[in-house]
Amino acid sequence: MHLDHATIVTADLAAARRFFVDVVALEDGVRPPFGIDGYWLYTGGRPVIHLIDATVPAQAGRTAPRIDHIAFRIETAAEWQALLVRMREARVACQIAEVPLSRELQLFVALAPGVVVEFVTALHDGETDA
To answer: How confident is the model at residue 62 (pLDDT cuts 50, 70, 90)?
Structure first.
């Protein structure tokens, strides 16, 4: 079993697309002709992020559906460093943490209220922060 995709409903479709394409380095791809605007973003030939335009405004006093976080595993030190460079260039605010006992780093980005994107990689010698 593996994660097939994550769907993010957002009122700022363009900003979410820019983040995932320009910073995360996913690629725009084919999307079925649904009756609502959106994007399918691909990596490795698979659509892993579905972005959907939020058409119903949030209502006061009602909890909106949300995603706690989506996590992407970065396999190599070179890929991790390239991500950090793109984050800095795009001036994306993030938090980084070392996972206790696992020799892994986590990088968190609050994409929108209620939606966090995590990137995780093995801790390579000399890496402790972004």
So the answer is: very low
